[in-house]
Specification:
The chain has 194 residues and is mainly alpha-helical. It contains 6 helices and no strands.
């Protein structure tokens, strides 16, 4: 069951990055910060490289797949979460396109900022559903053999944020994110309420 702790840690790291993005864009929108497209690009790189390409596929291929075998009745929630992984990837690319429009036209900031808020809310709801609905089912239904396979898959994740060895560039990115993200995700200034 180590994988559930890993997934929770990864969810916290993903939340920190998305909250960092949210806070940065809010600061740009209210004029307290100039656009930092290098940092925005780094945040987008992290979101694409880790949650979209590594974390979500492993949830689908290992945790959800094993749970489907042990609890066929869980199929509706697992199907919904798998669809959300696909939708989340599509929303990420839509958000990335909004950022590109903002880079070309500063007048597109409001559309981009609204997109960031929607993306953050979508991911927060998605992770809550996984932790509140799927984790209890997994704890109850999966066998030791299931956990061995799932744990091995998640132990191999190379998330630069949750302590797995990573490149110097990713460590520096995370330091920058933590510096701008508000508590409890980082040490930056308090964010405005959602």
């Amino acid at each position: 069951m180590k994988s559930l702790r890993i997934i929770e840690d990864e969810h916290r790291a993903i939340t920190a990055v998305i909250e960092g993005l949210r806070h940065l864009v809010a600061a740009i929108r209210d004029g307290s910060m100039a656009p930092d497209h290098g940092l925005l690009g780094a945040l987008f790189h992290y979101i694409e490289a880790f949650p979209e390409k590594l974390h979500h596929p492993k949830e689908d291929d290992y945790l959800f797949a094993r749970l489907r075998l042990r609890r066929p009745g869980a199929a509706p929630v697992l199907d919904a979460l798998s669809r959300e992984h696909t939708v989340g990837n599509e929303r990420f690319h839509d958000l990335e396109a909004m950022w590109e429009r903002f880079r070309a036209d500063p007048g597109a900031l409001d559309t981009f900022a609204d997109g960031v808020e929607r993306y953050a809310h979508f991911h927060w709801k998605h992770m809550r559903k996984e932790e509140d609905e799927v984790f209890p089912l997994a704890r109850e239904a999966l066998t030791a053999e299931d956990w061995t396979a799932i744990d091995a898959a998640f132990a191999s994740n190379e998330d630069p944020v949750v302590g797995v060895p990573a490149s110097k560039a990713f460590r520096e990115l995370f330091r920058r994110i933590v510096a701008i993200a508000p508590p409890p995700w980082g040490v930056g200034p308090e964010a405005k309420p959602r």
